[in-house]
Amino acid sequence: MTLTGSRTARVGFTALATGALVLSALAPAAATRAPDPGGVALMDVGGTPTTAEIEAIVADMSLDELIGQMTWTHVYGSSADDTSMAASNQARYGVDTPAEVVAKYDLGGVLYFAWSGNTGSPVQTATLSNGLQEAALGEDGPGIPLAITIDQEGGLVARIGPPATVLPGNMALGATFDPDLARRQGELLGAEMDALGVNVDFAPVLDLNSNPDNPVIGIRSMGEDPEVVSELGVAQIQGMQEHVAATAKHFPGHGDTAEDSHYGLPVVTYDRATLDEHLAPFQAAIDGGVDMIMSAHIIVEAIDPTMPGTLSPAVLTGLLREEMGFQGIITTDALDMDALASNWSQQDIARLTILAGSDILLNSPDVDASFEGVRQAVADGEITMERLRESVRRILTWKAEREVFADPFADVAAVDDVVGSPENLATAATISDRAATLLRNEARLLPLDVDDTVLMVGAGSGWPERVGPMLAARGFEVIEDYENGSSPSAAYRARAVAAAAGADAVVFTSYNATGNAAQQQMVAELAETGVPVVVIATRNPYDISVLPGADAVINSYGTGVVNFQGVVRALAGDINPAGRLPVDIPEADGDGILLPLGFGLSYPCPPQHAGPPDHAGPPEGSGAPGHAGPPANAGPGGCHPHPSGPND
After folding, report:
1. Which candidate in 34, 259, 514, 585 could, as Cys together with 595 as Cys, close a disulfide (CB 3.0–4.6 Å)?
2. Annotated catalytic residue within 60, 140, 262, 449
């Protein structure tokens, strides 16, 4: 990009017209931090611009520099100067390295993914962050530190894995109904991302998962009750924003869609009263001070029947800004998703979303085309320079308030003290223990006797091979038989039925069995053997509705080891299940409710949770509903099985 003289003003001592010195601290200076692992000393930044200084910077920016600050996109590579993925950077951006992408477009932010080589290890990621900030503040960069962003929701969507803390996910958190745990989850996510040099987490998801057939939200949601999701969401946001910016998504609510906006353009047809329920968590987040809100690529007919939220002035300006009073940063969801990319050009998407009210163009698949679209709209008088300055002023004000200007760098030497700390891992384990939700326990089958022989099988997508060794480690004799895929084959089903004869109980992992006839058939065939069948429903929580033959059903809300830790402890009687459904479970035919929101069974003995005793259940006054299950179905008279028959 051709650079203007304004860059010098942002990286060195330059007098404003008022006589004030602007952002002298942004100049490369003598290093005061420890060198990074590569031996390169980091710059000392240390200055925060005033409102007047931000105004002067914005006023001095060229058109392309304004667009660049509004452009946040991913880069390929594990370090700022990494050329190992040069082919990918060339194909998308026409340059070789991450640092060159930042310089070419004067980027305002970058977005991390594992598949783009950004998150190989915590130290590598922190070093990449520092290198990118050096590039942004160097002679060829925009002279303004970057927003470094990531989708680290915890659970299903987490761009950084172990040794970072792996969480059970939002629906597991929702099953605890505990705002204290929600705040602790937000705090640990924020602290770990901050340690990596990330300053924006595109989390939490505030969508109400009111549609059991939703293909993209599901267990990413904290539930379907507006009050509960609001309370847990605000707690997460406030914890996270102790360290980094949080982002409420996906406005105005993606939870009642039957189509995935990555692959198509969803339309929701409910009325305004129903929409208001989906808006409630976002209003709570706004009132709670959330920094950013991410738009959804969905059409909400109650507001705008023709344009998706990301491109709709009625949604982003009329509803979000004017009616709901949000003054923070509005970012699009990724612009490469098919909901938009298959229906509009990137030139038109960039133009339309800015006109609608967006501040950030996130992850355009063709950044050059996005720039072209905005330039042409300005040339045509459709978008004014002042409209762009409005967004950039908002972005720079956020960078000042979040101390991105003052201290954009990660302390690489301290990364391992924060990321995956024992305290954070203990929080994840507590959520797992508290989330395990027992929905059926016929003849008080659970907890199992540790002297039992257990046949461990299931849909491959439910990761039964993770559960089997955990049961064995707990002391069970385990017969294991696994098959890849989500639909068990006839041969696999037959092997499992034959093996059941040598077991005292069968444990089966289901995975969205409501839409999988082979899983339903396998559970039915196992039940016909007369050997008790325990189902761990590992993904969306609705599987119980189509598995009438299962003697016991317990929800894990995910397939991670951390999800199964709490479930295995519940199966063995080491803890008392305390999780409660964060959603309604409809009947299999969709006619009526099989199990209501708040339902959950327990064994009639004091829970023995990994967390403190006051975390044994939803706190008083939290609004969490009481257990709906009758005492007769609560389980055996203790946390370990009775020695006599099931009729005792």
Report:
1. 585
2. 262
